[in-house]
């Protein structure tokens, strides 16, 4: 369970995020939707605690991320916007590095690498250096790296960026698999179809403010739109009027 | 602590696989100094011994006007080439390098010489050319000796004790020990050692900070449940490891080079065996964490590899400054100077090379000052890493 409570973040005189509250529940996939520059990444960064909110707080499984950062993060896997890997290390070593830093023993890490290699279909390149990997392969390694410590909660910042159709489909299946295990998944995107195909719940933000927080269908019905895309545009339009 | 070691191991292994790091840390950095040094000193020594053995070459114009002088020069092993040159053509010949130093005896030489008036001669040389300057000096010294010999003869002829014309007898006493003289040449070796030490960690300091940023792995790393100080500590420690390796290779290379440099040809013995090398290693060791912390600190503020490279190249020059001051003001080992890192290592290393004894207190102060500054820089780096601007 991931909770954001009244998050506010200013950069200089610009208020990037204004009073954003929402929750992502276990066993659900929650989509954080918004146009470019809406404040999605800033929200997520406050949730996984690499930047601190000017006011409000975020909690992972009820643990305050600013107060007990390490304990909260042990329950959290993160796939940031930039999914950089270490090119001179193999896929396995990349995953093991993060596992070790999560405090897992070498034996367990080896087990997890095998499990993740199987479930993410990456056994073929597990022991190759990451340098020449395709974007799809890289995302798999980055995802495995985020999941090595079996976190209950997973945050992904625009994970589908730069992926081809097949890879996106793969990712979708992986996330659905994690949802079936009862995990809590929060991911951001600016592509409506992606969110519609996957999410149980959609949180829409625009201009740093929360505009909607509901099931996709409910948002469509409430706005009286024929499609979700229409609904998204409608919600954003209203947001612009409010602000 | 565990996280620190995990970071250390990963950085160490990852950079072991990086050709650029290996080249600068294990080849270029440590070997550049010893090889350049060996080549320079060998050439310098060859040139010096060569000159001392070689007879002075002079082109003389108008020698028929000064038979006494000509004979004097010949009897002092000067290879004379007779020519008839005007002043202008002599200048042109020297300038173009066709003639070595030219000695011109002008037409009024004989008349003035016989009249007991100062008889002029001209030495034409290019003082911008170090070789010519030395030859002109040798010619000048010979002419002065010839002049004073003639003066004494003249006094004797007039019944005056010629020793009256030698009121002061100058004796040069050179107290330089053979090793001490060698150190004048070896002085800049210490800079090469410190340079190798820094080069060893340069790319790792960049790769583990700006590199982490540039390849986009920083944010994932920072979102792990690990203290930022552990991350920074592991990175600095890995940088230290490479610096130690580089330092070791560099000192070993110096030991080997010194076997082949013919220092003893000048009666100098370079005091650099394996034991001395180990002492030098120990003296430099406290400078390693300081260099690593300084480079990591500076590189932490940069966003790209290229930017980090630009700034760190200037950092490589920092240790030269105190050493340059030391040679300009010819500073000697003093306890207060031990507080200045890089200068203290330079002075201690120079003392060891001169086979002078060094005080344990000086070594402790030098190590303490370097390690203290390293700690401060390390803490500042960790503080910077805790800021959220690291990601922005």
Descriptive notes:
The complex is a heterodimer of chains A (243) and B (392). Chain A has 243 residues and is of the alpha/beta class. Helix content of chain A is 40%, strand content 25%. Chain A is built from 9 helices and 10 strands. Chain A has helices spanning 40-47, 69-74, 91-101, 106-119, 135-147, 165-180, 192-198, 216-223, 228-242, and strands spanning 2-11, 14-24, 29-33, 55-60, 63-64, 76-79, 153-157, 184-189, 201-206, 209-214. In chain A, helix 3 (91-101) crosses helix 4 and helix 3 runs parallel beside helix 5. The longest helix of chain A is centred in the C-terminal third of the chain and has 16 residues, at 165-180. Chain B is mainly alpha-helical and 392 residues long. Chain B folds into 2 domains: 2-46 and 179-390, no CATH class; 55-173, D-Maltodextrin-Binding Protein, domain 2 (3-Layer(aba) Sandwich). Helices cover 66% and strands 4% of the residues of chain B. Chain B has helices spanning 2-16, 19-53, 67-75, 87-95, 109-114, 130-157, 178-186, 189-214, 218-222, 228-260, 274-284, 287-300, 305-317, 320-328, 343-353, 360-386, and strands at residues 57-61, 79-83, 102-104, 122-124. A 4-stranded mixed sheet of chain B has the order 2-1-3-4, sandwiched between helices. In chain B, helix 10 runs antiparallel to helix 11 and helix 11 runs antiparallel to helix 15. Chains A and B meet through helix 2, strand 6, helix 3 and helix 5 of A and helix 1 and helix 9 of B.
Task: Summarize this entry quickly.
The complex is a heterodimer of chains A (243) and B (392). Chain A has 243 residues and is α/β, with parallel strands linked by helices. Helix content of chain A is 40%, strand content 25%.
List the helices and strands and how they pair.
The complex is a heterodimer of chains A (243) and B (392).
Chain A lengths: L1 E10 L2 E11 L4 E5 L6 H8 L7 E6 L2 E2 L4 H6 L1 E4 L11 H11 L4 H14 L15 H13 L5 E5 L7 H16 L3 E6 L2 H7 L2 E6 L2 E6 L1 H8 L4 H15 L1
Parallel strand pairs in A: 3-8, 3-9, 6-7, 7-8
Antiparallel strand pairs in A: 1-2, 1-4, 4-5, 9-10
Helix pairs in contact in A: 3-4, 3-5, 8-9
Chain B lengths: L1 H15 L2 H35 L3 E5 L5 H9 L3 E5 L3 H9 L6 E3 L4 H6 L7 E3 L5 H28 L20 H9 L2 H26 L3 H5 L5 H33 L13 H11 L2 H14 L4 H13 L2 H9 L14 H11 L6 H27 L6
Parallel strand pairs in B: 1-2, 1-3
Antiparallel strand pairs in B: 3-4
Helix pairs in contact in B: 1-10, 2-8, 2-10, 8-10, 8-12, 8-13, 10-11, 10-12, 10-16, 11-15, 12-13, 12-16
